[in-house]
Design brief:
Blueprint lengths: L9 E4 L17 E6 L7 H14 L3 E6 L23 H18 L2
Parallel strand pairs: 1-2, 2-3
Length: 109
């Protein structure tokens, strides 16, 4: 988003780069993001800081938090072969996908 001025809207799932690499003042498109509150790879406390940074920069965004683990929309994150600290959740996955498609429908018409 910061380095791609040609985009019209963006949706983020699960993670973000280190905050020192995010220049929120350069984000000029609507943003939606989906976060897992039990994500061991991207702690929700970091996401709280990101949200505050975006708010201060006046970025239009919607963040959704799910009581889930990392990769909650990844259908392969089930069973004994899954990567530890990930877990597919079909209910949260469907809700996140519904929100994503509605968001893009709103902004990319």
């Amino acid at each position: 988003m910061c380095a791609a001025p040609e985009i019209d809207a963006a949706v983020v799932w699960y993670g973000c780069p280190p905050l020192e690499y995010i220049d929120a003042a350069k984000i000029h498109v609507p943003l939606q993001a989906h976060w897992a509150t039990q994500d061991e790879f991207f702690p929700i406390a970091t996401i709280d800081l990101l949200q505050e940074r975006l708010r201060e920069a006046g970025v239009a965004f919607d963040f959704f938090r799910y009581l889930a683990r990392h990769a909650f929309a990844n259908e392969t994150a089930v069973g004994p072969g899954r990567i530890p600290a990930t877990q597919y959740d079909p209910v949260w996955s469907q809700q996140a996908w519904d929100r994503t498609f509605s968001f893009f429908g709103r902004w990319l018409r």
